[in-house]
Amino acid sequence: MLQSFIQALVITLREGFEAFLIVAISLAYLKKSGRLALTRAVHYGVAVAIALSMVGGYLLFHAANQEWLDGPLAMVAAVSVTWMIVHMWRAGRRMKGDIEGRLQTSSGRAGAAAFTGVLLFTVLMVSREGMETALLLMQLRTSPMYLLAGAMTGILGAAGVAWLWSRYGHRINLALFFQVTAIFLFVFVVQLVIAGAHEMSEQGYLPFSRVIHERTESWGPDSAFGHLLTYMLVILPAAWLALKAMTSRQSVIQPKHTLKNSVGLRAQG
Known about the structure:
Elements: H1 2-32, H2 39-64, H3 70-91, H4 95-107, H5 112-137, H6 144-168, H7 174-202, H8 209-217, H9 224-247, H10 256-268
Helix pairs in contact: 1-4, 1-5, 1-6, 1-7, 2-5, 3-7, 4-5, 7-8, 7-9
Protein backbone atom coordinates (compact mmCIF):
# COMPACT_ATOMS: atom_id res chain seq x y z
CA MET A 1 0.00 0.00 0.00
CA LEU A 2 2.83 2.39 0.89
CA GLN A 3 4.52 1.55 -2.41
CA SER A 4 1.40 2.55 -4.37
CA PHE A 5 1.09 5.76 -2.33
CA ILE A 6 4.69 6.73 -3.15
CA GLN A 7 4.27 5.82 -6.83
CA ALA A 8 1.09 7.91 -7.13
CA LEU A 9 2.82 10.78 -5.32
CA VAL A 10 5.88 10.82 -7.60
CA ILE A 11 3.80 10.42 -10.79
CA THR A 12 1.50 13.36 -9.99
CA LEU A 13 4.40 15.39 -8.59
CA ARG A 14 6.40 15.18 -11.79
CA GLU A 15 3.52 15.37 -14.28
CA GLY A 16 1.81 18.11 -12.28
CA PHE A 17 4.97 20.17 -12.08
CA GLU A 18 5.54 19.85 -15.83
CA ALA A 19 1.99 21.12 -16.41
CA PHE A 20 2.50 24.01 -13.96
CA LEU A 21 5.79 24.81 -15.68
CA ILE A 22 4.18 24.90 -19.13
CA VAL A 23 1.47 27.28 -17.92
CA ALA A 24 3.92 29.51 -16.02
CA ILE A 25 6.30 29.83 -19.00
CA SER A 26 3.38 30.53 -21.35
CA LEU A 27 1.92 33.29 -19.16
CA ALA A 28 5.33 34.85 -18.53
CA TYR A 29 6.12 34.93 -22.26
CA LEU A 30 2.76 36.49 -23.22
CA LYS A 31 3.14 39.16 -20.55
CA LYS A 32 6.74 39.87 -21.52
CA SER A 33 5.84 40.16 -25.20
CA GLY A 34 2.95 42.54 -24.50
CA ARG A 35 0.17 40.11 -25.46
CA LEU A 36 -1.77 40.29 -22.19
CA ALA A 37 -5.10 39.74 -23.96
CA LEU A 38 -3.97 36.24 -24.94
CA THR A 39 -3.42 35.14 -21.33
CA ARG A 40 -7.16 34.41 -21.21
CA ALA A 41 -6.58 31.80 -23.91
CA VAL A 42 -4.10 30.05 -21.60
CA HIS A 43 -6.62 30.08 -18.73
CA TYR A 44 -9.39 28.69 -20.94
CA GLY A 45 -6.97 26.14 -22.36
CA VAL A 46 -6.09 24.87 -18.88
CA ALA A 47 -9.79 24.50 -18.03
CA VAL A 48 -10.48 22.56 -21.25
CA ALA A 49 -7.38 20.39 -20.71
CA ILE A 50 -8.46 19.48 -17.16
CA ALA A 51 -11.94 18.53 -18.45
CA LEU A 52 -10.44 16.40 -21.25
CA SER A 53 -8.07 14.71 -18.79
CA MET A 54 -10.95 13.86 -16.47
CA VAL A 55 -12.95 12.36 -19.35
CA GLY A 56 -9.87 10.46 -20.52
CA GLY A 57 -9.22 9.22 -16.99
CA TYR A 58 -12.81 8.02 -16.71
CA LEU A 59 -12.55 6.10 -19.99
CA LEU A 60 -9.18 4.61 -19.02
CA PHE A 61 -10.56 3.57 -15.63
CA HIS A 62 -13.31 1.55 -17.30
CA ALA A 63 -10.90 0.20 -19.91
CA ALA A 64 -8.55 -0.94 -17.13
CA ASN A 65 -11.36 -3.04 -15.69
CA GLN A 66 -11.39 -5.09 -18.90
CA GLU A 67 -9.05 -8.01 -18.29
CA TRP A 68 -8.06 -8.32 -21.94
CA LEU A 69 -6.76 -4.71 -21.89
CA ASP A 70 -4.61 -4.98 -18.73
CA GLY A 71 -1.45 -6.08 -20.53
CA PRO A 72 -1.64 -3.71 -23.54
CA LEU A 73 -2.39 -0.71 -21.29
CA ALA A 74 0.59 -1.55 -19.08
CA MET A 75 2.86 -1.69 -22.16
CA VAL A 76 1.46 1.59 -23.50
CA ALA A 77 2.11 3.18 -20.10
CA ALA A 78 5.69 1.83 -20.09
CA VAL A 79 6.39 3.26 -23.55
CA SER A 80 4.79 6.58 -22.56
CA VAL A 81 6.92 6.90 -19.41
CA THR A 82 10.12 5.95 -21.26
CA TRP A 83 9.45 8.51 -24.01
CA MET A 84 8.67 11.18 -21.42
CA ILE A 85 11.87 10.52 -19.45
CA VAL A 86 14.13 10.45 -22.52
CA HIS A 87 12.47 13.56 -23.97
CA MET A 88 12.85 15.57 -20.76
CA TRP A 89 16.41 14.35 -20.20
CA ARG A 90 17.42 15.47 -23.71
CA ALA A 91 15.20 18.53 -24.20
CA GLY A 92 14.56 19.70 -20.63
CA ARG A 93 17.10 22.51 -20.87
CA ARG A 94 15.45 23.77 -24.06
CA MET A 95 11.91 23.47 -22.68
CA LYS A 96 11.49 27.20 -22.08
CA GLY A 97 12.79 28.13 -25.53
CA ASP A 98 10.65 25.48 -27.26
CA ILE A 99 7.46 26.66 -25.54
CA GLU A 100 8.20 30.30 -26.29
CA GLY A 101 8.98 29.46 -29.91
CA ARG A 102 5.66 27.67 -30.39
CA LEU A 103 3.79 30.45 -28.64
CA GLN A 104 5.50 33.03 -30.85
CA THR A 105 4.18 31.20 -33.90
CA SER A 106 0.66 30.81 -32.46
CA SER A 107 0.33 34.32 -31.03
CA GLY A 108 1.85 36.01 -34.08
CA ARG A 109 -1.33 35.49 -36.09
CA ALA A 110 -4.00 38.14 -36.44
CA GLY A 111 -7.16 38.48 -34.33
CA ALA A 112 -9.07 35.35 -33.37
CA ALA A 113 -6.47 33.10 -35.00
CA ALA A 114 -3.91 34.10 -32.34
CA PHE A 115 -6.37 33.39 -29.50
CA THR A 116 -7.32 30.03 -31.02
CA GLY A 117 -3.69 29.10 -31.59
CA VAL A 118 -2.67 29.80 -28.00
CA LEU A 119 -5.78 28.03 -26.72
CA LEU A 120 -5.12 24.87 -28.74
CA PHE A 121 -1.43 24.91 -27.82
CA THR A 122 -2.29 25.05 -24.10
CA VAL A 123 -4.96 22.34 -24.41
CA LEU A 124 -2.54 20.03 -26.23
CA MET A 125 0.39 20.52 -23.85
CA VAL A 126 -1.54 20.37 -20.55
CA SER A 127 -3.97 17.60 -21.54
CA ARG A 128 -1.00 15.48 -22.62
CA GLU A 129 0.35 15.66 -19.07
CA GLY A 130 -3.11 14.92 -17.67
CA MET A 131 -3.65 11.89 -19.90
CA GLU A 132 -0.20 10.51 -19.08
CA THR A 133 -0.99 10.91 -15.38
CA ALA A 134 -4.31 9.10 -15.74
CA LEU A 135 -2.72 6.29 -17.75
CA LEU A 136 0.03 5.74 -15.18
CA LEU A 137 -2.24 5.94 -12.14
CA MET A 138 -4.51 3.29 -13.65
CA GLN A 139 -1.60 0.84 -13.48
CA LEU A 140 -1.42 1.05 -9.70
CA ARG A 141 -3.41 -1.85 -8.31
CA THR A 142 -4.32 -0.45 -4.92
CA SER A 143 -7.27 0.84 -2.94
CA PRO A 144 -8.78 4.14 -4.14
CA MET A 145 -7.98 5.72 -0.76
CA TYR A 146 -4.22 5.22 -1.09
CA LEU A 147 -4.31 6.20 -4.76
CA LEU A 148 -6.23 9.41 -4.04
CA ALA A 149 -4.04 10.28 -1.04
CA GLY A 150 -0.83 9.82 -3.04
CA ALA A 151 -2.18 11.72 -6.05
CA MET A 152 -3.42 14.66 -3.96
CA THR A 153 -0.13 14.82 -2.06
CA GLY A 154 1.76 14.82 -5.37
CA ILE A 155 -0.43 17.60 -6.82
CA LEU A 156 0.09 19.72 -3.70
CA GLY A 157 3.82 19.03 -3.91
CA ALA A 158 3.85 20.01 -7.60
CA ALA A 159 2.05 23.25 -6.76
CA GLY A 160 4.61 23.91 -4.01
CA VAL A 161 7.58 23.27 -6.30
CA ALA A 162 5.96 25.44 -8.98
CA TRP A 163 5.50 28.26 -6.45
CA LEU A 164 9.15 27.96 -5.37
CA TRP A 165 10.20 28.03 -9.02
CA SER A 166 8.11 31.16 -9.69
CA ARG A 167 9.65 32.92 -6.68
CA TYR A 168 13.19 31.56 -6.73
CA GLY A 169 13.49 30.17 -10.25
CA HIS A 170 17.21 30.85 -10.62
CA ARG A 171 17.96 29.14 -7.30
CA ILE A 172 16.11 25.84 -7.91
CA ASN A 173 18.08 23.01 -9.52
CA LEU A 174 15.36 21.74 -11.86
CA ALA A 175 17.77 19.40 -13.67
CA LEU A 176 18.33 17.47 -10.45
CA PHE A 177 14.58 17.34 -9.76
CA PHE A 178 13.91 15.76 -13.16
CA GLN A 179 16.87 13.38 -12.82
CA VAL A 180 15.72 12.01 -9.45
CA THR A 181 12.12 11.54 -10.57
CA ALA A 182 13.32 9.99 -13.86
CA ILE A 183 15.29 7.32 -11.98
CA PHE A 184 12.21 6.52 -9.91
CA LEU A 185 10.07 6.24 -13.03
CA PHE A 186 12.62 4.01 -14.80
CA VAL A 187 12.18 1.45 -12.00
CA PHE A 188 8.43 1.87 -12.40
CA VAL A 189 8.82 1.11 -16.12
CA VAL A 190 10.49 -2.22 -15.25
CA GLN A 191 7.49 -3.10 -13.10
CA LEU A 192 5.08 -2.11 -15.88
CA VAL A 193 6.90 -4.20 -18.50
CA ILE A 194 6.91 -7.29 -16.26
CA ALA A 195 3.24 -6.87 -15.38
CA GLY A 196 2.30 -6.14 -19.00
CA ALA A 197 4.19 -9.15 -20.35
CA HIS A 198 2.63 -11.40 -17.71
CA GLU A 199 -0.93 -10.24 -18.46
CA MET A 200 -0.47 -10.38 -22.24
CA SER A 201 1.00 -13.88 -22.06
CA GLU A 202 -1.93 -14.94 -19.89
CA GLN A 203 -4.27 -13.80 -22.68
CA GLY A 204 -2.11 -15.56 -25.30
CA TYR A 205 -1.14 -12.35 -27.09
CA LEU A 206 2.60 -13.08 -27.20
CA PRO A 207 4.74 -15.73 -28.89
CA PHE A 208 5.71 -18.43 -26.37
CA SER A 209 3.00 -17.08 -24.06
CA ARG A 210 3.03 -20.16 -21.84
CA VAL A 211 6.78 -19.93 -21.18
CA ILE A 212 6.65 -16.16 -20.56
CA HIS A 213 3.68 -16.55 -18.21
CA GLU A 214 5.45 -19.23 -16.15
CA ARG A 215 8.70 -17.25 -15.95
CA THR A 216 7.06 -13.94 -14.96
CA GLU A 217 4.80 -15.64 -12.41
CA SER A 218 7.70 -15.58 -9.92
CA TRP A 219 8.48 -11.90 -10.62
CA GLY A 220 5.26 -10.50 -9.17
CA PRO A 221 5.00 -7.75 -6.52
CA ASP A 222 5.03 -10.27 -3.65
CA SER A 223 8.13 -12.13 -4.88
CA ALA A 224 11.72 -11.49 -3.80
CA PHE A 225 12.36 -9.70 -7.09
CA GLY A 226 9.20 -7.64 -6.61
CA HIS A 227 10.32 -6.58 -3.14
CA LEU A 228 13.75 -5.68 -4.56
CA LEU A 229 12.14 -3.38 -7.13
CA THR A 230 10.08 -1.79 -4.36
CA TYR A 231 13.26 -1.02 -2.40
CA MET A 232 14.94 0.28 -5.56
CA LEU A 233 12.13 2.83 -5.99
CA VAL A 234 13.51 4.58 -2.92
CA ILE A 235 17.18 3.53 -2.80
CA LEU A 236 18.22 4.49 -6.36
CA PRO A 237 16.76 8.04 -6.40
CA ALA A 238 18.08 8.68 -2.88
CA ALA A 239 21.53 7.38 -3.86
CA TRP A 240 21.62 9.59 -6.96
CA LEU A 241 20.56 12.61 -4.91
CA ALA A 242 23.29 11.89 -2.34
CA LEU A 243 25.89 11.37 -5.09
CA LYS A 244 25.02 14.66 -6.78
CA ALA A 245 25.07 16.46 -3.42
CA MET A 246 28.61 15.19 -2.79
CA THR A 247 30.04 15.66 -6.28
CA SER A 248 28.11 18.50 -7.94
CA ARG A 249 29.06 22.13 -7.52
CA GLN A 250 25.43 23.18 -7.88
CA SER A 251 23.23 22.48 -4.86
CA VAL A 252 19.49 21.90 -4.95
CA ILE A 253 18.91 25.46 -3.73
CA GLN A 254 21.72 27.90 -4.38
CA PRO A 255 22.49 30.49 -1.70
CA LYS A 256 21.94 34.14 -2.53
CA HIS A 257 25.59 35.09 -2.27
CA THR A 258 26.40 32.53 -5.00
CA LEU A 259 23.95 34.20 -7.32
CA LYS A 260 25.30 37.66 -6.51
CA ASN A 261 28.88 36.51 -7.14
CA SER A 262 27.93 34.89 -10.45
CA VAL A 263 26.06 38.02 -11.54
CA GLY A 264 29.06 40.15 -10.55
CA LEU A 265 31.44 37.97 -12.50
CA ARG A 266 29.20 38.18 -15.57
CA ALA A 267 29.08 41.96 -15.24
CA GLN A 268 32.88 42.14 -15.00
CA GLY A 269 33.24 39.87 -18.00
